[in-house]
Design a protein that fits this description.
Elements (H helix, E strand, L loop, with lengths): L1 H24 L3 E10 L8 H23 L4 H13 L20 E7 L4 E8 L5 H11 L4 E3 H10 L13 H20 L4 H6 L11 E6 L5 E7 L20 E3 L4 E7 L1 H6 L2 H12 L3 H14 L4 E7 L4 E2 L6 E8 L4 E6 L2
Parallel strand pairs: 3-4
Antiparallel strand pairs: 1-5, 1-11, 2-3, 2-6, 5-6, 7-8, 8-9, 9-10, 11-12
Helix pairs in contact: 2-3, 3-4, 9-10
Length: 345
């Protein structure tokens, strides 16, 4: 009898020790950010520029983390982190937005509250300094989910958001990228060697659409939130809108499952309802956040789409799958450990 009790005691101690070890290994993440995906190769990056990206990502992470540690909401953290990235010329959002075919900067953004599935979005705006704040205002200060163009700009001004002249978004690098594409398109057309379908879709300039920023967070009350902001595609035409402002495609958050923000070729992310699909796989199939995220990105890839997502589940488990050469991304644990990555592992 004593031998049996000893065996049981040892067994229980082993379980307790293993649980303690598991908690150390499986760190709880509370905020994750991304700054876009694409052909991001170390050989093409100077040490100075790589450091600049890392500094910007860390600044965004700290902005959100400080609010979470002060017991602010996941929505506050997401908005704060994205505003930092929108104010940086390094990323295709806000100040760093790319140019459309007619030489304008058109911005899109969305945000979602996992607690009650409230959401807000703006699309095609040209004068709102921080579109993510406009998206939140639509969610909290109107009865709508999405506003576009001049109407969204008028609303943003009425609720007191910072309005800027469109010239604020001009950066030489983005303008030069548009000039390069115009030149390439002109040469191809003149030589009659371009694939008409590819030109129409902008396929030959695939990587000029990556750079969208996003953030997801889990606060002390267990509430998830997600947000995404973008300048769209370089040389985009005809009022095109991608997945970033579309709830369920580029952004989704549900306290029962996961928060997701996407970056990549928007048309494919819309068609695959990417952000919601991750949540559905977790809710209905019982997948882990890593399994669900990887499966969804694989589906996008099979259709010919490029990009990636960041995902954070209700337990603080995190995933960052992408099918490109790199993705600007970073995360912070509940204990304050920051991780920032750029290239493929």
């Amino acid at each position: 009898m004593k031998t049996l009790q000893l065996i049981i005691s040892v067994f229980l101690i082993t379980i307790i020790s293993f649980d303690a070890y598991s908690q150390q290994v499986n760190q709880k993440y509370i905020l994750v950010v991304h700054g876009g995906a694409g052909t991001i190769l170390k050989k093409n990056m100077t040490a100075e520029k790589e450091e600049a990206y890392r500094v910007a990502l860390i600044e965004a992470i700290k902005a959100g983390y400080n609010l979470l540690k002060a017991n602010k909401s996941s929505l506050d953290a997401v908005e704060a982190a994205i505003r930092v990235l929108e104010d940086s010329p390094l990323f295709n959002a806000g100040k760093g937005a790319v140019f459309t075919n007619d030489g304008r900067n058109e911005l899109d953004a969305s945000i979602m509250d996992g607690k009650n599935l409230a959401a807000g979005a703006v699309a095609g705006v040209t004068t709102i300094r921080n579109p993510i704040s406009a998206a939140r205002a639509v969610m909290e200060k109107s009865e709508h989910v999405m506003m576009i163009g001049k109407g969204a700009e008028k609303f943003a001004k009425e609720v007191g958001l910072e309005i800027v002249d469109p010239s604020y978004f001009y950066t030489p690098d983005r303008w030069n990228s548009l000039q390069k594409i115009w030149k390439e398109d002109s040469i191809k057309k003149n030589q009659d060697k371009a694939d008409e379908k590819s030109l129409k879709l902008g396929i030959e300039n695939k990587d000029n659409k990556f750079g969208t920023v996003g953030a997801i967070a889990l606060d002390s009350k267990g509430n998830l939130a997600a947000g995404t902001s973008t300048g769209g595609m370089t040389n985009k035409k005809f009022g095109r809108v991608g997945d970033s402002p579309i709830i369920g495609a580029g952004t989704y958050a549900n306290n029962n499952t996961v928060a997701v923000s996407a970056t990549g070729w928007g048309e494919f992310f819309i068609r695959n309802v990417v952000a919601y699909d991750v949540s559905a796989l977790i809710e209905y199939k019982g997948f882990s956040v890593k399994e669900a995220s990887r499966m969804v990105i694989n589906k996008v890839g099979k259709l010919g789409g490029d990009g990636g997502i960041i995902a954070l589940d209700k337990n603080g488990n995190m995933a960052m799958p992408f099918n490109t050469e790199g993705m600007f991304r970073g995360a912070i644990t509940e204990a304050g450990k920051i991780e920032v990555r750029i290239y493929k592992d």
